[in-house]
Design goal:
Layout lengths: L9 E8 L6 H10 L3 H15 L22 E2 L2 E6 L3 E7 L3 E10 L2 E10 L2 H33 L1
Antiparallel strand pairs: 1-6, 2-3, 3-4, 4-5, 5-6
Helix pairs in contact: 1-3
Length: 154
Amino acid sequence: MTTELRSPDYEDTFSIPCPPGITMSDVIMASLKSTPGFVKVLLNARDSIVSRLGLKTGESIGPIEPSQFKSGAKVGPLEIGELTHSKVIVGMDDTHLDFRMIATIQGSVLNCTTQVRFNNKFGRLYFLVIKPFHIVIVPALLRATITTVKRESA
């Protein structure tokens, strides 16, 4: 089961205002529908490169219903850990690093915390290359998710 990482080597949190009354299922569904085009291009480029290095790549995500969101379920390459009305932990462990994304709704704020634990020198090098993209991608994903939540609840 995917849980928060103890003593991560890297951690950050991005936050965005969100509409009152939304649930984590709303956030998950909206995030799956709203990935910005530039993020898809970057993730496809990443997958093309890392597949040659034997690392896990993104898996195609087919139609998903909220009833499928439960602890232990897979959404693409990610495993859902804890899932409550206001919190979800998803993650993936690989040979080079372990990754967790913890999303929480606190009042009218959606927070997204990323945790990374390096398993070897390659994991450190990999994240050194990925980090500049990460700090642009996560806020863009949050904005797109909240835009979709607002549009679908209107």
